Amino acid sequence: xxxxxxxxxxxxxxxxxxxxxxxxxxxxxxxxxxxxxxxxxxxxxxxxxxxxxxxxxxxxxxxxxxxxxxxxxxxxxxxxxxxxxxxxxxxxxxxxxxxxxxxxxxxxxxxxxxxxxxxxxxxxxxxxxxxxxxxxxxxxxxxxxxxxxxxxxxxxxxxxxxxxxxxxxxxxxxxxxxxxxxxxxxxxxxxxxxxxxxxxxxxxxxxxxxxxxxxxxxxxxxxxxxxxxxxxxxxxxxxxxxxxxxxxxxxxxxxxxxxxxxxxx
Length: 265
Known about the structure:
Elements: E1 10-13, H1 28-39, E2 43-47, H2 52-62, E3 68-71, E4 76-79, E5 84-88, H3 94-103, E6 108-113, E7 117-120, E8 133-136, H4 139-142, E9 150-153, H5 159-166, E10 174-178, E11 184-189, H6 194-205, E12 212-216, H7 222-227, E13 230-234, H8 239-242, E14 247-249, H9 256-261
Parallel strand pairs: 1-2, 1-12, 2-3, 7-8, 12-13, 13-14
Antiparallel strand pairs: 3-4, 4-5, 6-7, 6-9, 9-11, 10-11
């Protein structure tokens, strides 16, 4: 998409580190920019690693009452007006948990239960987007039902060592992405990502790829960046992501999302 051309018609926005600083509300400037885009008939799609439960307060802050949102890194899509999932893409967590326990015996696993909360094999500090129930269960129970997303935390490990060991991991039918901070790993069904979900939505809405915009700050935004006609990383994103995008905007604390949207809206 030409930055100086027409306005984007499909806008994908990450939440934590992009729309807002985790733990803080959306600023008035960012909310106003998003509302201006919606008023101009653009499709604004919150695209996040958060669950449905923890995405809804952000939708409320932005004033989004209809349209679509992509949650759980693309594994869950919701119809905002209906307030319910319209697509859930789950996988069997047992093969992944079995293989990872061999590599990381003390790893803690957290499996999302859509619309309810999480089942977990222990307590993890700073668990991704807590919300709903958090029920501690054994590994057998955790693996007894499909999940759209499995979060994995290695309590005593380092990011470098975790990545080295994961080079030996061979589990079919899954995809994984590293967390930005610490030895975290998020697993989804193979091929499922924000970019994958957004492409399905783009086709359903019949919007040209060149009219799409994506703004994010994390490793789970890489596929979204590759999908977008124009991709933007936040200044606070890991520097290795800056080379993957068309531009870098201001830090989340400086309303970088608004700085981009205000060009058109």
